[in-house]
Design goal:
The chain contains seven helices and six strands. The chain has one domain: Ribonuclease H-like superfamily/Ribonuclease H (Nucleotidyltransferase, domain 5), CATH 3.30.420.10. It is globular and about 45 Å long. Strands 4-3-2-1-5-6 form a six-stranded mixed sheet, sandwiched between helices. About 4% of the residues have low confidence. Strand 2 and strand 3 form a beta hairpin. The chain is an alpha/beta fold.
Amino acid sequence: MRYFVDTEFIEDGQTIDLISVGVVADDGREFYAESTEADLGRANEWVRDNVLSHLWHRQSGDERRQANRWSRDGGTGGFLSRRHIAADLVRFVAGDDSPPEFWAYYGDYDWVAICQLYGTMMDLPDGWPMFCMDLKQLAVDKGDPDLPEQSSTEHHALADARWNRDVHAFLTSLAD
């Protein structure tokens, strides 16, 4: 099963601090969580302007209730500690007999942020690969075509994971 992933994070050249993670499975299931442990005070101006305003836990009034429906109505994920995000993500990926295949766009830091949920890359759940497939590399292999426009909120981990799924479908539909 393929899983299309995206994370939002704070990084300073030494540390990657996970803010949120979004995952969309081939079968249509979705996972989204925001870390209760992210030190949002360390966010640089770009993260403050482009990421923090989209976090579901920071919405107000009716928007917050609508945005957090995924949590209230038994959806997978939520506003959780890293330990709980890691456990929920394992449950989300479990159940398929084949090894999971993870895909991201410019996914190096996304994969590090996910690996760090479990400790080191060596601590990843049994059966998980130690690498993430990269959509940008696939695009280059396909002649680097213009990719579909993202019609949803950019820099929101779940919206970006959905776009990653759509980009994969577009790229794999092209002839070699």
